[in-house]
Design a protein that fits this description.
heterotrimer, A alpha/beta (275), B mainly alpha (323), C mainly alpha (276), A: 275 residues, alpha/beta, Rossmann fold, six-stranded mixed sheet, four-stranded antiparallel sheet, 27% strand, B: 323 residues, mainly alpha, 77% helix
Amino acid sequence: MSQGHKVTGKSMERLLEVKNLKVDFQLEKQLIHAVMGVDLSVNKNETVVLAGESGSGKTITALALTRILPPNASIVSGEIIFKGNNILDFNPKQMSGVRGKNIAYVFQEPTSYLNPVYTIGDQIAEVIILHQKLQRREAQARARELLEQVKINDLDRVLTSYPHQLSGGMNQRVFIAMSLACQPDLLIADEPTTSLDVTIEAQILKLLLELKEKLGFSLLFITHNLAIARKISHRVYVMYQGKVVEEALTSEIFDHPKHFHTQELIAAYQKIGKI
Amino acid sequence: MIKYIYKRLLGMIPVLLGITIISFVIIHLAPGKPTTLDQAMNPKVSPEIRLRLAKLYGLDKPLAVQYLEWTKRLLRFDLGRSFSDNRPVKDKILERIPLTVSINSLSLIFVFLVAIPMGIKASLKPGRGFDNFSTFLSFILFAMPTFWLALLLMQFFCITLGWLPISGIKSLDFEYFSLGRKVWDVAWHLILPVFVSSLGSLAVISRYMRSSMMEALTQPYIYTAWAKGLSQRQVVYKHALRNASLPIVTIIGLSIPGLLGGSVIFESIFALPGLGRLFYEAVMMRDYPLIMAEVVLGAVLTMAGNLIADISYAYVDPRIRYK
Amino acid sequence: MLMLIRGSAINEMRKNPYLIVGIIIIGILSLAAILAPLVSPYDPSLIDSQGLLMPPSPKHWLGTDSLGRDLFSRLVYGSRISLSIGIIAMGIATFLGLLLGAWAGFYGKFSDTLIMRFADIMLCFPTFFLILAVVAILEPSIYNIMIIIGLTSWMGPARLIRGEILSLKEREFIQAERALGATDARIIIRHLIPNAIGPVLVNATLGIAGAILLESGLSFLGLGVQPPIPSWGNILIESKSTLGIAWWITLFPGLAILVTILGFNFIAEGLKKVIG
């Protein structure tokens, strides 16, 4: 499933362009530079992987893209240009218009990222009502269709269930349905399969890619698992200690890794026999 | 959920038993028999009546038997007769319940209306102005003896300003008032007592709300809420608050013992004819049947409150309600 | 905890304003209580028939009551009563609680169920109701009050210590001690209790504050410390009849209670920070 043969780069339409992003964290008395000048870009219909170990700053970068950061973090400088506009200049209303509508997320641990006191149906309908101004009943109907799209069978039961009543894999499907509800241009998936069983992992990945083909969104996939990266992406960014240390086409990076950290990551997966 | 309720109800039985045992033990801690101590208060009581009382209360029988007799009567809601005026204890208690319940309910409502928004506001900007102010206020309220505050407020509002009545539940010429005026009169008399009795809980509940909200706001699903494009208002009030208020639901039930205990003091200060004042009068007059009845009642109400608290929580949290 | 005793703790102190302020307040209070005869300008029961209900003045710093007794001196002697009742009552409660809680936590199963059930039942009684009922039967006196408050407050420390012991029981160093043949008592006293003592101390501090509040409430109702022995609570009895006439009788005793409770609460807050 290697996408290496598809030529990407400046000839394609640029969806997202990040320049020199810096994010700082305030911890007690210490100021931590979590992201230190990151450049990255995503083109239309591309799958880009952001790879790195935990602590490399990849999740913060991902969250920063829609300015959803913990209260003690702040974007210090840089530009985040989405569809031609620097969203760092957007006011809260404009940001609300982008989140969930143009850019959506899938997170690592779906059950804890879903609100435990609302039903699945309500949570999906919420984002539809917000951006598409439908009535509750119509939104619920639409939610039902979305669940069908992610290959969930027991539709009515799932719609009226609470997150704790469903499995991790099921919740991740729900989450994907929820994120794609308003047909975003960019889906940011932060380690979406890391907490799932291996067999479920494969199913979810397959689902994601099928939906991407069908609906035509770009995918920014964050992972530390280079085996997955190789399988699904056009391009790979490797992050290490807050910086992007290597960027290359998938086809090149695995054969000719330039940075030592990239080599380490590849080696780690080769040892487990995954690549 | 039903199973949960059954289990809890079943668990209540040994506790009820324990309550009766301990109440019984307490009342018989007296060095002399209840009737002998009563002598000092009521020299008019002749030896015949004393003997009759002793027989009536079975005081000449062994303790275990007395306990069983007493418990049997309790189950039939026969609470005996008051030593002071020989009226049935049950009646005396029943006629006072409405007032105490009303005051405490109003006070709880007031607390919720004030403490919850306070706690939420403090949680949104921790460490800043409002939070520091409300923390400071909570500390003071928590440390303040409520009866003292009642006295101070009485001094200020009733005497210095003359805005509020100093005591009682109705004015002197209450009988001549129209219905509307009567209602207002009672309400006017209740303003200060309700306010005073709510202050202690105010501090506790607003702190609780604050920490509950702060906890909820750090949860993963809050990121999801933001990522969906919801406004700050929606994230805080629809997603965080709903979760943060789950434990608050239990607080209503758990406040009962505190409210009951508090009502003894401030009903005395404000001369309100409620359960608390009845208990105080009973204690002053060593009216043992009345004292015992109220002690058991207090414990049973507390237990009921705990039960309601637990069940409410189980109902409100979907994680418990649905398996 | 031991750090507080060593000199290098000064740095820790600076980061803990609650603890410092609390200790200062309670320290001053304790000194006043201990040195009462030296600190109070008058004998608290000295009646000055010339100066009934006098407002604060250079002669009587906080004024006099309706019997002409100096309020300041009465408050100082009252601090002895309040502090000693608070400390002893809480001492009894904590001792009992440690005993029962440690037993329940350590021996588990039946003892645990029995003791905890007992605690649950005791907790059903509104504290004030319980104490008042017992006072009605046993007649109010300082000693009775200390004991009663103590006997009705053991549940908190018991629960705490039981919880701590339950979690510490299975840790390795305890297993090691067992292997070395230590007796149960030794394990409990030498190892489990010292490790679990933190929260219990916080609870005890708050408990002293609570006990003082309880005593003042009781005394105010006439069922606590009996006059003429001065207690902040029973001095306030007079304020009911002098409302509007003698504001100082209402203000100062209450303020004393407030500041004392705050002091203990601050210490508890500071201790919480130390324990972490």
